[in-house]
Design goal:
Layout lengths: L3 H7 L16 E3 L5 E3 H7 L4 E3 L6 E3 L8 H9 L8 H35 L7 E5 L5 E6 L5 E5 L2
Antiparallel strand pairs: 1-2, 3-4, 5-6, 6-7
């Protein structure tokens, strides 16, 4: 049987002991099912990989952190969420916008480079694709009739 203290403890991240909030300390869904706040998971994530603090199972975060919506809704229904700290919320929101901006900038650069190349070289009807290497360089890949690729560094 659960007591009120158990519920209050369940409303906190076991790492930083902060009470969950809707955003900055939102409970994050991990592959193993354990929950930790967004801030702790962000701090412990390296190269889009988070290792659970409790069981050490790996969660891939390459598409972003996923909030445990069911847990968040339960905490909301029981009125156990802490209010957001406006300064922390603004900083976290800015970090998420910066990541989105970087991804959008890459897409924009690739699109612009591909469009420039295609129209400058009148290669509208050829089989062309764009690839991005680990260093952020953008390459245009033209596939010759025999299927071999020809790489041109665009940026």
């Amino acid at each position: 049987m659960y007591h009120a203290n158990d519920l209050l403890e369940a409303a906190k991240c076991i790492i930083c002991l902060e009470t969950y909030t809707e955003f900055t300390h939102a409970p994050i869904l991990t592959a193993c099912g354990h929950a930790f706040c967004r801030e702790c998971v962000e701090k412990a994530t390296v190269n889009h990989v988070f290792q659970c603090f409790e069981c050490r199972k790996i969660t891939l975060c390459d598409t972003g952190l996923k909030v445990n919506i069911n847990m968040l809704q339960c905490l909301q229904a029981m009125n156990l969420l802490a209010p957001e700290d406006p300064v922390a919320y603004a900083a976290a929101l800015e970090r998420s916008v910066i990541v989105a901006d970087k991804n959008q900038k890459l897409v924009d650069n690739i699109t612009m480079a591909l469009t420039e190349y295609v129209f400058q070289n009148e290669k509208v009807d050829q089989n062309i694709a764009v690839e991005d290497d680990e260093d952020g360089d953008i390459y245009l890949v033209e596939y010759h009739s025999d299927g071999t690729p020809y790489y041109t560094m665009v940026r």
